[in-house]
Amino acid sequence: MTYLSTVEAKCPECGSAEVVMDRETGETVCGACGLVVGEGMMDRGPDWRASSQEERDEKMRVGPPIDVTHYDKGLPTMIKVDEDAFGRPLSPEVRQQMWRLRRWNLRARLHTSASRNLSKAMAELELLSDKLSLPPFVRETAAVIYRRALGENLVQGRSIAAIVAASIFAACRIHRTSKTLREVAHVSTRREKEIFRSYRLILRSLGLDIPLDGPLDHVSKIAERAGVSGEVQGLAVRILQEAREKRAVGGKDPTGLAAAALYVAGLLRGEKMSQKDIARAADLTEVTIRNRKRELTQKLHLGL
DNA sequence: CATTCGTGAAGACGAAT
DNA sequence: ATTCGATTTCACGAATG
Q1: Which residues of chain A have pLDDT under 50?
Q2: CB within 8 A of A12, min separation 6: which ones?
Q3: Fewer CB within 10 Å of terminal CB in chain A, N or C?
Q4: Distance in angstroms, CA of A182 to C1' of B12?
Q5: What is the distance in angstroms measured between the alpha-carbon CA of A185 and the sugar C1' of C16?
Q6: Which single residue has its CA nearest the C1' atom of nucleotide B7?
Q7: Which domain covers residue A289, as residue numbers?
């Protein structure tokens, strides 16, 4: 018992022809990438064909064609407020009641479409949060951000998964949870580039002002993954603080700085640690470690 | 042999135009 | 929209231990 039916359309995002209509929800979704192509978007043309004018007159009827895939069968559920079904005027009390009914009717439609979207999004959020081992409060923040993004109509025409990933990334930055964009993208089905686009859109549309992350935000995570002692870690922090004061660094990838600081701190304390190890722990290349290391040791004139 | 170091080509990005 | 400059990454070879 499947409620999905293939639609004759190509996904604008991935080009796949696996675009599918959910008969229960009326949502049109790309089966390959999850992009929400549209809600209640369907062929509004005539649902019949006529070969002659007589036939045309025969089949012609008033109103939009019926599409059974829509939950309300495509019929407009307009509630009249001025007159009853026979065109007679209504009493003021009943009129007011009709206004209320109509408001509720419109509101209910919005509500159901929003909750359908949310249930999908929250499932995705939980999945990604688990993969990233996010603390609950970060996840909460991400959920709030997503809800606001949904309220601002940022999801229409974009992939739910991408907006969810972007919300998670934003929440991580807000709480200074040192998750890189790459890490988020790694557990998501969406591309890093797309997630970043969504992230920027969210920041602007919601007026979020998130401070940039510095090298210090990444030290503990990298150190832990590389198995660096707390002592060396502390030295790395001091190196970074001094580098900041001397304006020795700028415009560089913060993770690279943090990784290099840990590396040189390890050298100074004689703790064995290859560039390869650090590079892997920081998800960078050894080249970047080397370049940062060179700048660090020169500009802070550390003997090495 | 593993590690380290430097280099040139290529891609990505922001800023300037 | 294109161009430019800085940065990172990749692939490689050389030096070092």
Answers
A1: 1-4, 22-26, 31, 33-34, 39-52, 54-59, 61-75
A2: A35, A37
A3: N
A4: 14
A5: 39
A6: A287
A7: 215-300
